[in-house]
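Example 9 (inverse folding). The structure is encoded as follows.
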């Protein structure tokens, strides 16, 4: 493959990658809770690339029960989320929130997702959740118990690009690789060779 053909292939690859890049500014909706028992409704629909952040800090003690309702707009197919909360030991003095569970329900109150506990690092417990998520209204419910002060952060991102876009990119790269292999191995047909030659620079007169 000569330098010009290589540069054209590189340009095509860069163009493909640019199509995957975000075309619009992503928004972040933030909900702040100062109580263990609370609920909120996010008025603005979340679109592709948008995020929902739920930030809780309270000195209350007792049962945690927070309900956050939000709407997902058109073009969304899946989401990813994570949560972190302080679980200082019983002998410490900092916030201590235990038994945390995060569930996602649809408009019919059907459970769609629950978080998976990942582990504890630096006094923070971590969990993740995610899956398919189309347009509609959803409710994120956080439960647990505040032993002392409680600190909990939850984030949910409507992930982009969709998996099918990755598939299209990989398929395109596979076709480019196949073309290069055929050219190198000399198995290209006469028609293929003519197509390749069309893009070669002409010799100066």
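The amino acid assigned to each position is listed next.
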């Amino acid at each position: 493959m000569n330098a010009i053909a290589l540069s054209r292939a590189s340009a095509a690859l860069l163009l493909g990658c640019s199509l995957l890049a975000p075309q619009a500014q992503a928004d972040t909706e933030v909900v702040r809770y100062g109580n263990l028992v609370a609920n909120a409704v996010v008025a603005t629909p979340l679109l592709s690339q948008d995020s929902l952040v739920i930030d809780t800090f309270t000195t209350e003690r007792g049962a945690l029960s927070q309900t956050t309702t939000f709407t997902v707009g058109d073009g969304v197919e899946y989401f990813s989320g994570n949560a972190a909360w302080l679980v200082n030991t019983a002998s410490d003095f900092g916030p201590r929130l235990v038994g945390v569970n995060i569930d996602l329900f649809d408009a019919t109150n059907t459970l769609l997702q629950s978080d998976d506990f990942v582990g504890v690092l630096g006094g923070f417990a971590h969990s993740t959740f995610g899956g398919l998520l189309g347009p509609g209204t959803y409710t994120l419910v956080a439960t647990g118990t505040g032993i002392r002060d409680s600190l909990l952060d939850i984030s949910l991102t409507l992930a982009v690009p969709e998996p099918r876009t990755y598939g299209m990119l990989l398929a395109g790269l596979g076709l480019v690789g196949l073309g290069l292999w055929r050219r190198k191995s000399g198995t290209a047909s006469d028609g293929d060779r003519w197509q390749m030659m069309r893009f070669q620079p002409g010799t100066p007169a």
